[in-house]
Here is the input.
Amino acid sequence: MHQKLNWKEFADKNELESILLQDIVDISNNAIKKNGNFKIVMAGGSTPERLYKSFLNIQNQNFSNWELYVGDERCLPVDDEGRNSLMIKRSFIDHLPEDLKPKFFPINSEKGSKEAANEYNTIVDKVNRFDLVLLGLGEDGHTASLFPEHCWDNQLNVVPVSNAPKPPSDRVSMTPKAFLKAEKIFFIVTGHGKIEPVNAWKQGEGIPASKIMSDNLIDIYCNFD
Ligand code: 6PG
Here is the structure.
């Protein structure tokens, strides 16, 4: 399978975010119309936080039709500032009234990477389709918690990660197998530090982000300010 990439480079970060938001809205509306729900895998890290806050500006959206999954999680206490699930709750979910909150499937990484990965693997095994997967890109070319020089069991949808070069060293991550369930994959790549991994990716270096496959075009929203 060959990675089919659609580079969307924006000179203005605000333009990237408004177009990205509208593209997500279009996918969610179509998914809800077709299947009655919208299943989205949320990216971790700092990049998507503004985007998640902007979800609250979407008009006429019943988020209770949304199902949120997490592409990866750091093995930290539940209330630790570094938890991706906490960032998602604080930027988006916690601002919604109870009856309009999405169904949220956090990775319970406080249980330790192995137990949490087994538990989440069972959840993802039962998902036939993700309507959208959001992913970030690390400066070393990692995505989710799939790091260079690491190997992962691609027979599984979710794996434990140890010795991660980006702290904390213990994590849990979806694998390329899980991302194959995606109808659509968006990478969100912003900041000057991402120029290098993007160039490596374009030059065909085998960074982990290049291992993410899809039957459809993978859209990469970039701004390097
Ligand atoms: C994580 C993320 C990770 C992130 C990239 C980019 O848990 O660290 O899932 O894959 O997306 O490292 O991080 P920034 O958005 O903070 O640059």
User: Anything to note?
Assistant: The longest strand covers residues 185-190.
